[in-house]
Amino acid sequence: MKIHEYQAKQILAKFGVPVPAGEVCTTAEEVERFAASLARPVVVKAQVHVGGRGKAGGIKVAKDASEARQIAADMLGSKLKGLTVEKVLVEEALDIRREYYLGITIDRAAQKNAFMISSVGGVDIEQIADKTPEKISKLHVDPATGLLDFQIRQACFAANLDPAAIASTLRFARALYDAYIAIDGSLAEINPLVLTGDGSVIAADAKINIDDNALFRHPELAEWEEESEEDEIEAEAHRRHIQYVRLGGDIGIIGNGAGLVMTTIDEVNRAGGRAANFLDIGGGARAELVRNALEIVLMDPHVKGLLFNVFGGITRCDEVARGIIEATSTMDIKVPVVIRLAGTMEAEGKALLHGASLIAADTMQEAAATIVRMTR
Ligand code: GDP
Ligand code: MN
To answer: Which domains does the chain have, with CATH numbers?
Structure first.
């Protein structure tokens, strides 16, 4: 689960992680009042679940309360990367000497938490991670010992942090790790971690994700879940009880079984394509379910072709074929649809598909190659 920056900072403050004085506001009047109470320059920050708010105009510095009010009036209700800004976080503006990056996340390959630090944090960190990953120093945390001070120090030296900042960064990292573990985080990212003019470090930004499977242990955090900010198609799929995740490519994927769908996505990649989504229709394939799945996948305007991959176990291929034919015959589908059916009653299923304007493939590899070719 994603939480907002202001919520992340509330958590961090409880664990002794230094964060700027701030308050979340929903009206320009509140913003003005709070900025006036600080009586110093402030930064007004849009609270929406997107990255790169700075570059998109969602982070603005105001020299006084009336300017803060004006900025908030423009920002509240406006759209930032497609999401409506309903809240802003107002904070004391920082005296930024350096912008570092500090992050903790799960490294699935290592089966451990990874701790990362860089002396070149800020709004271009993605580019740095991509082009010069050596500028981010990384260590793995042994779950039995936790994050150890010497490890943090080593990572700070390796990352070329200002020597004067190392002691305070060490305390910061320890507190951040404690918070991350206590809330069952899957990501805690501070970018930038600001080294201020007076030599202290403070979390200018904070992004925290919480492991959904652990939310039952944190009812007070589970309350923060918001549906409105989900991807629109994902939200609609959620309402229809369909397991759908948008992935950004242009080949729609529908399959039965999460493992099979993931493998299908891999095969599409291997064939040189990019999957638009993950969609698992689970067991059974009545026309109603198939139609819902097709509708969800086709809501994504980027979808140029569709790949149906079904393995008939308990679900019979002929039933699936009937479901697909029935659903597609009542829909106006403008993109090619490739279907791979295998397993129970495969021959019967394929025979049914034969007359329909659907393209049948024998293997998953062939199906992936076909749909990739057809969408080129
Ligand atoms: P993001 O763009 O969504 O990651 O939002 P950030 O909170 O990280 O802000 C983006 C950038 O705004 C930072 O990297 C800073 O360079 C810049 N910025 C300038 N003044 C301030 C300030 O007082 N506080 C914060 N948080 N950022 C500031
Ligand atoms: Mn940031």
So the answer is: 21-92 (3.30.1490.20), 96-222 (3.30.470.20), 232-375 (3.40.50.261)
The CA distance from 220 to 14, in Å, is 14
* Sign of the Cα pseudo-torsion (8, 14, 20, 23, in order): positive
Atom from ligand 1 closest to the CA of residue 5? 7
What is the distance between the alpha carbons of residues 155 and 136, in angstroms, rounded to a whole number? 9
Give the H or E element holding residue 105.
strand 96-107
Asked whether 189 lines ligand 1 (CB < 6 A), one says no
Q: CA 74 to CA 161: how far, in whole Å? A: 37
| pTM for the whole structure | 0.74
Tens of pLDDT, residues 34-74: 999 999 999 999 999 988 999 999 999 999 999 999 999 99
Sequence-separated contacts (24+) of 239-242 with Cβ below 8 Å: 240/292, 240/296, 242/279, 242/281, 242/292, 242/293, 242/296
